[in-house]
Amino acid sequence: MSILEQLEQLKAEAEREIKEASQQSKIDELWTKYFGRKGGELTSILRGVKTLSAEERPAVGKAANEVKVFIEELFAVQKEKIYQDGLAAKLSAEQIDVTLPGKWKAPGRIHLLNITMRRIKEVFKGLGYSVVSGPEIETDYYNFEALNIPSNHPSREMWDSFFLREGLLMRSHTSPSQVHVMEKQEPPVRVICPGKCYRRDAVDATHFWEFHQVEGLLVDKNVTFSDLKGTLELFAKGMFGHRRRTRFNPSYFPFTEPSAEVMVDCFVCDGKGCRVCKNSGWIEIMGSGMVHPRVLKGVGYDPEKYTGFAFGMGVERIAMLTYGVDDIRLLYEDDMRFLSQF
Ligand SMILES: [Zn+2]
Asked: Which residue, of 19, 57, 293, 319, is most buried by count of CB atoms within 10 Å of its CB?
């Protein structure tokens, strides 16, 4: 076979082989096969050109060079094709379908009771009150005695408590916190004590055995009932809107004298009368009164020198009134359909 014939054959073979190569490793292998310095098929032929006669050499040399350029071009094209094919495959494998719905995670929410509690705290913080907490397990002394409720006092029935062993009980109101605060510090005192309370109430739409109260206490020199009124009026406006009016009805609590129920004109019907205010136009929002001198004396304050007022509100009640919730049990059932509304 002449060299020209060999070149033709090599060219055809190389074209077929290179176009079939689908991996870079195969391309490298073929490159060595044709262009390898030792035993490369085209390299050998090119070397053979030198042994030809002077007449033959130019034509064969030219042909050999053309074949060399042709095969090099084949390699370049195929290498690019392999690279592009690989890239396309990779992109297709990693493709993201942006039209698919995302994985939804329910965001955390603040419970309605916490929202209400935070708002109450904010209003009183704005009035210069600090927030303190007291224990949920109390002794009979703090829950009753120190608050002017001796053991034979008929008003103990107002607090149907959960008793534990050895004179301990679950606190049935946040008022004991007042006593703890006053025992620890001298007047002036200006605190609110939010927290959980427990009573052996039969559960219905407005009663639950666990509930929250916010207790408030201010003791200083020359504190009068009008300070109480002014403070709680400000609270009512801060909590329910600046147009709200308040009214104080005489009431009874063993630890305050005089005592008053705080009423706010109905923020649902604007005082016209509705289901929420039972057509009276007024809603009771808390109990309050001037701290009983016996309570002050009990913690070592001089009732001749200091006076004070205290108030307490049910957080559930405020939340239910504010958000139009008609059953307290909804606040304790962890039903997301209900809770996610707020
Ligand atoms: Zn109303």
From this structure: 319
Q: With 80 as the cut, is the pLDDT of residue 168 above it? A: yes
Between the CA of 307 and the centroid of ligand 1 the distance, in Å, is 35
Q: Is residue 247 part of a domain?
A: yes
- Taking the centre of ligand 1 as the mean of its atom positions, its distance from the CA of residue 224, in whole angstroms, is 31
Note residues around ion ligand 1 (Cβ under 5 angstroms): 266, 268-269, 274, 276-277
Rounded to whole angstroms, the Cα distance separating 282 from 266 reads: 5
At which of 31, 65, 93 does a domain end? 93
46 shares its domain with 160: no
Ligand 1 centroid to 145 CA: how many Å? 38
38 lies in the same domain as 119: no
Distance from the alpha carbon of residue 216 to the mean position of ligand 1, in angstroms: 26
For the stretch 238-297, pLDDT in tens is 999 899 999 999 999 999 999 999 999 988 888 888 888 889 999 999 999 999 999 999
Structural domains counted in the chain:
2
Which helix (H) or strand (E) segment is 286 a member of? strand 282-291
Q: Based on the domain organization, do 201 and 239 belong to the same domain?
A: yes
User: Which CATH number does the domain housing residue 266 bear?
Assistant: 3.30.930.10
Structure tokens at 293: 């001198």
User: What is the structure's pLDDT at 191?
Assistant: 95
Ligand 1 centroid to 265 CA: how many Å?
Answer: 8
Whole-number Å distance, alpha carbon 112 to ligand 1 midpoint, is 21
Buried/exposed code over 25-61 (b: 16+ C-beta within 10 A; e: otherwise): eebeebbeebbeeeebbbeebbeebeeeeeeeeeebe
- Per-chain mean pLDDT for the chain: 90
Query: 331: CA distance to ligand 1 center in Å?
Result: 22
- Is residue 100 situated within a structural domain? no
Kindly give the distance from the C-alpha atom of residue 280 to the centroid of ligand 1, in angstroms, as a whole number. Answer: 7
Residue 336 dihedral angles phi and psi, to the nearest 5°: -60, -30
144 close to 150: Cβ distance less than 8 angstroms: yes
Please check whether residues 88 and 145 belong to one and the same domain: no
Domain span at residue 275 reads: 112-339
